[in-house]
Amino acid sequence: MSVDETAEKIKSMEIRGAGRIARAAAESLRDHALATNAPTCPAFKQKMEQAADLLTATRPTAVSLPNAVHIVMAGLGPAKTVEEARFGVVQSADHFIQSSQQAVEKIAQFGARHIRDGDTILTHCNSEAALGCIIEAHRTGKEISVFATEVRPRNQGLITIRTLNDAGIKTSFIVDSAVRSFIHDVDLIIVGADAVTVNGAVVNKIGTSQVAHTAAEARVNMIVAAETYKFAPRTIMGELIEIEERPGSEVLSDEIARTLPNVTVRNPAFDVTPAEFVDLIVTEAGAIPPQMAYVIIRDYLGWGIEEFNPSPVSGPGTRC
Ligand code: RI2
């Protein structure tokens, strides 16, 4: 798939989910490197950077996207020829895709250990990392059931209930506003993440913070399943996560909106759950309290800090 096509599919959410977006971007950069010809190494690098910028600009919140692009582009390394640079990108993209898939599998194993036999779990939106934990618990013989929310306005809950149904897991499908009505039937909340900031706040699908508040009030634990590449390095330097606001037409048809000139539809796609509402973040490197987010950023994504003082001759992706 071309970079333009991938970018369009990410924007329109045909490709969605923070992990899938990251792998799609890596795949697209790899294909672009294989298809791109340039007379010189700097010219090749420039074409790759244009593609990287286009992909990164598609959705602003899921930090897995710029992280994946950064990791893949680091494959350009100190290459002296176009062939070397191409090989570097292909290698780092393949490595990222493979390790992302392995991360989701590991998270499933670690997360499943937090689910007890007989538990009822509530999940919000459609997260492959969160669902992986639930399905793994079921696979290992635990008798569990799930509450899955609808997830207005894009209805990602429909994807979730299909997956749970196919896995043979008993599931109750509820509207987003019914979470509080059922919270006392729930033993554990498991959700995914689009970004985790240095102070352990979790950015995830709109409504997650309401679920978290409700869970805290009812003393129900909440765990977040998130690969290390969903942690946001630049938040160390004070950069804020941008919350994507999508078109109002996703919530209210243009036809109806036209009849309501005094009404503006607001449609933020994500919200922020503070660290104190999250009991654990399960990563492929193990489960951590959210307050340890800094350690993940430092140990797995340490390059974020350098980027604020980029050196012209060093640092990933800066040489060719
Ligand atoms: P995985 C999704 O965003 C949801 O917010 C979900 O919780 C998160 O990405 C993580 O998903 P969207 O693309 O990477 O639906 O765990 O806006 O699949």
Molecular structure report:
The protein has twelve helices and ten strands. It is of the alpha/beta class and 320 residues long. A seven-stranded mixed sheet has the order 3-2-1-4-7-9-10, with helices on both faces. A hairpin with a 2-residue loop joins strand 9 and strand 10. Helix 2 runs antiparallel to helix 3, helix 3 packs parallel to helix 5 and helix 5 packs across helix 6. 1,5-di-O-phosphono-alpha-D-ribofuranose binds next to helix 2, helix 6 and strand 6. 1,5-di-O-phosphono-alpha-D-ribofuranose (RI2) binds next to helix 2, helix 6 and strand 6.
Give a topology summary:
Elements: H1 3-11, H2 18-35, H3 41-56, H4 64-73, H5 82-112, E1 120-123, H6 128-139, E2 145-149, H7 157-166, E3 170-174, H8 179-182, E4 188-191, E5 195-196, E6 202-205, H9 208-217, E7 221-225, H10 254-258, E8 270-273, E9 280-283, E10 286-288, H11 293-301, H12 303-306
Parallel strand pairs: 1-2, 1-4, 2-3, 4-7, 7-9
Antiparallel strand pairs: 5-6, 6-8, 9-10
Q: Termini, distance in Å?
A: 26 Å
**Which secondary-structure class do the elements indicate?**
alpha/beta
Rounded to an integer, what's the Rg over CA atoms? Answer: 20 Å
Strand order of the largest sheet: 3-2-1-4-7-9-10
Strand-residue fraction?
A: 5-15%
Total strands: the figure is: 10
What ligands can be seen in this structure? 1,5-di-O-phosphono-alpha-D-ribofuranose
> How do the helices and strands follow one another from N- to C-terminus?
HHHHHEHEHEHEEEHEHEEEHH
Helix content: 40-55%
Q: In terms of per-residue confidence, which ranges show pLDDT below 50 for 5 or more consecutive residues?
A: 308-320
Sheet bearing the most strands, described?
7 strands, mixed
Overall shape: it is globular
- DSSP helical segment count: 12
State mean pLDDT (0 to 100 scale): 94
